[in-house]
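Service request form, structural biology core

Requester: graduate student, group of Dr. S.
Request type: structure prediction, single chain
Budget code: on file
Notes: please return the result as structure tokens.

Sequence provided:
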Amino acid sequence: MGLNTEELFKDRAGSKRDRDVLARELLAAVGQGSEAVKKLLFGGAKPELYSDHGSYRQGMHDHCDGLKNSRVTEKRICKCLYYRNGKYYDPDACRRCGYAHEGRFQIVGRYQITDYEVPAYYYGTGIGEIDLVVSDGETKYAVEVKPPEGNPETLLRMIAEIMTYTIGYPEGQYHRAIAFFEGTAQAQEFAGDAEKAGGVIKEILEKADIAVFCFKKAGGRTYELCKL
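Core staff response, request fulfilled:
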């Protein structure tokens, strides 16, 4: 059976109107185990393996070829975060591009960004990619990221996305995580849910073992990636 975007839970999870109902549906699946989660995430369809279709390999992101337009998208930000802060940082390339120059999205702190746009384990229409891989030298975190401004997506969608992109990977290869910027709608939602007694989002994060990071301002355009 094929896979189509209408079946993916992550796309339904963007609905603010049905957020509480969908959150409890996901929480129930987490309590039932990985097969129940997989069935919910893919709507009962059987996704194919990325390894049967794609050619990504670890370490292939070793050169930034610039940006094609001026739109500030999630992919653009993650690409700049990776190249601006990784071992392949090229100040001349950043200067020519202009977007990541002058310290924009410079990251400080104990966590390093080690890869970006890593394919999901499964393949199919609507299945995206792991935005960033972040490491503290011991643990690799597969992280779903939202831009620092102009993105209203819910935490539930972020959670559903990172679960969709990582399910299938061997246990221990990646620790799932979400990350948002200080002052965003996602940061406000997280703070609001944390204040509630028994906030359902917090419960999902805890039971599904999903870490939470925040890009906190550390002066100018520099951020510290902090684990909450």
